[in-house]
Amino acid sequence: MKLTIIPSDQTVIRNGKALNFPFSLPDIRAVQWDNGSGEVEYLDGRPNKKITSLAPFQSVSNAWQTEKTRLEDEAIEAAKPTVAALKAYRNELLEKCDWTQSNDVILSNNPLWLIYRQELRDLPQYVQANNIQLSDYATMAEFVAAVFPVNPPQSQRD
Questions:
Q1: Contact by Cβ (8 Å): 14, 1
Q2: Which of 7, 71, 95, 124 could form a disulfide with 25, with the two C-beta atoms 3.0–4.6 Å apart?
Q3: Same structural domain for residues 75 and 87?
Q4: For residue 132, what are the domain limits?
Q5: Is residue 156 in some structural domain?
Q6: What is the dihedral of CA 30, 34, 38, 40, to 10 degrees?
Q7: pTM for the whole thing?
């Protein structure tokens, strides 16, 4: 494992992945560790100290892992679909096909567009009525693929 600890920047770099979080190591400029040996650099002018154990800095390394896990969990939660995201995407799809309902557009598949647009408008109620849990889907794309109606072909203009 490679580890760099920079207390003044509240930065820890482990195997190339840098994270910032609060920690304190007074009087230390940096700690460098590379697969079994390392060095401590001091702020007060003392010479650098060679180290063969990471034990005095293990709590900082553990805090890095905790922060990494927290950030990954946060990213997973942020990617999950929400009701607001569902409605925003549904509204976007409705806007994209508003042209199909204009009086001066005649489509041979107009009934399909009417059904599709109604299914989009009914989607939040459909999700609720069928007890579909948005949290069961890892991403909005996965949710859309499973639940959203498929739009009719756009090329059937008369």
A1: yes
A2: 7
A3: no
A4: 83-147
A5: no
A6: 0
A7: 0.60
